[in-house]
Write a structure and sequence with these properties.
Blueprint: H1 10-31, H2 40-49, E1 51-55, E2 60-63, E3 71-76, E4 79-84, E5 90-96, E6 101-102, E7 118-121, E8 125-130, H3 132-141, H4 143-169, H5 172-187, E9 191-192, H6 196-203, H7 207-219, E10 223-226, E11 229-232, H8 235-243
Length: 244
């Protein structure tokens, strides 16, 4: 019988639902680094309230500190966390990949810390969400969870501080070179399907400025530009440039 035409019998529906939930939780258990540090009650609370979500590329998952989404754990896909200026310019703070966790989407659990960040799906993404109030309650009664939360927040602050250093002390050509090399590593190819506008958004610059820089790179034989695509021709020289 084809799966598309398979109809679950009403008498078996509850058992089927429980089976699907058990599979979801089992996968979450393997990915959530604190699972074994939780007691039975805490595990049940998370299991009963865990949200699974599939989002398409371009979806805004979290938008500003008034949007307390919860703790995000990426099952598969790619997310981008960025801030937006009053003039509408964007700059990427960090990105999230498979098995990465994001706490800034639940910053409301820490009264003294608020972040006006936006989180967007850069690729089609499967993720789990622990609601903010659920995570906050467990964090209050579990020292391992509280310690891990502090470590995770410290890591994100380090990411932001590194970004500030790059903006303040590195010239734009080095930052563009670094970004292009990072993209080739993420995508696994030297042919990047990316626009100048997208690069500008990641780096907090203007599209016109990025276009001029990329044309300079092309003139130097580092890249080849075409509509909606950048081909890396000389990654070794880009590496030398970013380190200089």
């Amino acid at each position: 019988m084809a799966y598309a035409s398979y109809i679950i019998d009403t008498s078996k529906k509850s058992k089927y639902t429980m089976f699907v939930k058990e599979i979801t939780v089992m996968n979450f258990e393997n990915c959530f680094p604190l699972w074994n540090d939780l007691n039975t009650t805490q595990k049940k609370i998370i299991s009963d309230n865990l949200i699974t979500q599939y989002v398409k590329k371009g979806t805004i998952i979290h938008n500003g500190n008034l949007d307390c989404t919860g703790l995000l754990l990426v099952k598969s896909g790619q997310l981008r966390t960025y801030i937006l200026s009053d003039e509408g310019r964007e700059i990427t703070l960090y990105r999230l990949f498979d098995m990465d966790m994001c706490l800034l989407s639940a910053s409301c659990i820490m009264r003294s810390i608020q972040f006006e960040v936006t989180i967007e799906a850069e690729k089609d993404t499967d993720l789990w969400i622990i609601p903010a109030e659920i995570y906050k309650g467990i964090m209050k009664e579990s020292a391992p969870v509280a310690n891990y939360t502090n470590e995770l927040m410290a890591t994100r602050f380090s990411d932001v501080m590194w970004l500030i250093e790059q903006i303040m002390w590195k010239s734009l050509d080095k930052r563009v070179a670094s970004f292009l090399l990072e993209e080739t590593s993420i995508e696994g190819t030297n042919e990047l399907k990316i626009t100048h506008e997208t690069i500008a958004n990641h780096l907090g610059s203007h599209r016109e400025v990025i276009t001029r820089m990329l044309r300079y790179f092309q003139g130097e034989g580092l890249v080849k530009l075409s509509r909606g695509k950048i081909t890396i021709l000389d990654p070794k020289r880009l590496e030398t440039l970013q380190r200089s």
